[in-house]
Design goal:
The protein has twelve helices and four strands; from the N terminus they run ααβαβαααααβαβααα. By secondary structure, the protein is of the alpha/beta class. It has a single domain, classed as Rossmann fold, CATH 3.40.50.1820. α3 links the parallel β1 and β2. It is globular and about 60 Å long. The termini are far apart. The C terminus is likely disordered.
Length: about 260
């Protein structure tokens, strides 16, 4: 939907980190992407961070945004120092084909009503608060219909399994125990793919755990970010370049001394 889903996390983490929530193309106040895809979403995210000169980052993504975060980490391996993946998966299991011809006999108003009722039941756990459901459904109703259709198409066809297996970055995977869209089994698969990742289940939460259990999610992200900050800096190409230049300069100086 939009960056407003992250309002609780933006407030909770503001004192300990520089936090940015992005409206991806076609979402919130952003313009549509010419050709929407995971790669396009990741590229836009990278360009925003480039413009702010804010690398390195911990990339946090929810649902389809989790796959975008994986794509970003694969494309900018030296710049993404951590991943937090909420209600995410590498790929969705194949679903039984629906009967689209049947929808032609359903009046548009009833079709829309059925969509939102179904979405509410799928996205939220039975114990979700009224405030969480109200925010979630408001954002869903505000989202452009073509954006929802595009994202569903991307989600159904995506497969970031190879990218996830190749990642060598600290990763925290969070999933609601009652998630019906990306159930815990899919998070366990993702956990097995990403070397050294950690998996935490949020008891009683559904697919929208970032607004169903905002305090739990914010604390988990803060603790993960603190653990990243305590890690010794890795030797990146950028870090080794000055040493290489120094070695080349020393060789030249030694050569000059020998010639003399």
């Amino acid at each position: 939907m939009s960056a407003r889903y992250w309002s609780d996390q933006l407030r909770a983490l503001a004192d300990s980190a520089r936090v940015l929530a992005i409206d991806l193309p076609g979402h919130g106040e952003s313009d549509d992407a010419p050709v929407p895809s995971l790669a396009a979403y990741a590229d836009v995210t990278a360009r925003v961070v480039d413009a702010l000169a804010a690398w390195p980052v911990i990339a946090v993504g929810h649902s389809l945004g989790g796959a975008v975060a994986v794509e970003l980490a694969a494309r900018r391996a030296a710049d993404v120092c951590g991943l937090v993946l909420l209600s995410a998966c590498a790929r969705l299991p194949s679903a039984a084909p629906s009967a689209p011809w049947l929808w032609g006999f359903v009046p548009p108003s009833l079709r829309r009503l059925l969509f939102f009722v179904t979405a509410k039941n799928l996205l939220f756990a039975a114990g979700a608060s009224r405030a969480a459901i109200a925010l979630g459904m408001q954002e869903l109703r505000s989202c452009r219909p073509q954006t929802i259709a595009i994202d569903v198409t991307i989600a159904r066809s995506m497969d970031v399994t190879a990218l996830a297996r190749a990642l060598r970055v600290p990763a925290l995977i969070l999933c609601g125990s009652r998630d019906r869209v990306t159930p815990p089994a899919l998070s366990r698969e993702l956990h097995a793919m990403i070397t050294g990742s950690r998996l935490d289940l949020v008891d009683g939460a559904g697919h929208m755990l970032l607004i169903e259990a905002p305090t739990v999610v914010s604390r988990a992200i803060a603790a993960f970010a603190a653990s990243i900050a305590r890690r010794p800096p890795s030797r990146t190409r950028a870090a080794t370049r000055p040493r290489s230049r120094l070695r080349r300069l020393l060789r030249r100086l030694v050569g000059l001394v020998r010639h003399r």
